[in-house]
Write a structure and sequence with these properties.
Layout: H1 10-20, H2 25-34, H3 45-58, E1 61-67, E2 75-80, H4 82-97, H5 105-110, H6 118-148, H7 158-183
Antiparallel strand pairs: 1-2
Helix pairs in contact: 1-4, 6-7
Length: 192
């Protein structure tokens, strides 16, 4: 029987970081944010601690030590168990091999672009393009700060590289559709 996998995808990030080295949850959260992984995983203090507790209960991770530094609260450092590493690798392998159906909100919305009318649709797409360009700039800056600065190898930042390529592709598509609206090459229904 296949072991039950965590429902929260943040577990994948926690398990991935623990492959690099044992860490306490605060260090996990800091590393996720530094590496821009909070773009791929919703990271809140509560959800992170819930995931850590559930992984520990499932036997995928174990407390390695608890220590207090200065006046800070005690922090428990976690590490993979043999079972946890094995299950993480199997889960990761499946996620990479088998595409999953995802339902992005933008695809749902773009299905009804015509309801906005030509001008409003063009304005909405132009505004989205601005947001995407800013997001791409932030991703490039994070890449420079982490990979180019030698703080982490490219292998540990592939998700940011992938996200940047997806942002760039979406930006190019959005700009093309806006240009097609401007040029009249995108057929628009005649208003009744």
């Amino acid at each position: 029987m296949k072991p039950k996998r965590p429902a929260n995808p943040l577990a994948l990030a926690v398990l991935g970081l623990l492959l690099e080295q044992p860490m306490h949850p605060h260090a996990i959260a800091t590393t996720l944010r530094e590496r821009e992984l909070d773009r791929a995983f919703k990271v809140t203090t509560g959800s992170l601690y819930d995931v850590v507790r559930s992984l520990e209960r499932a036997g995928w991770i174990a407390a390695q030590e608890t220590a207090r530094v200065g006046g800070r609260p005690e922090r428990t450092v976690y590490t993979h168990t043999g079972q946890g590493r094995e299950q993480f690798v199997a889960w990761l392998d499946e996620l990479i091999r088998v595409p999953a159906k995802e339902y992005p909100k933008f695809i749902s919305a773009i299905s009804y672009l015509g309801a906005l009318g030509r001008q409003a649709a063009r304005e909405a797409l132009t505004e989205r393009a601005g947001h995407l360009a800013a997001e791409a700039d932030r991703a490039r800056a994070a890449w420079r700060d982490v990979v180019d600065a030698g703080r982490a190898p490219r292998l540990f930042m592939l998700e940011l590289e992938y996200a940047l390529r997806m942002i760039e592709a979406e930006l190019a598509w959005v700009e093309q559709v806006a240009a097609d609206i401007d040029s009249g090459t995108l057929a628009w229904p005649v208003a009744a």
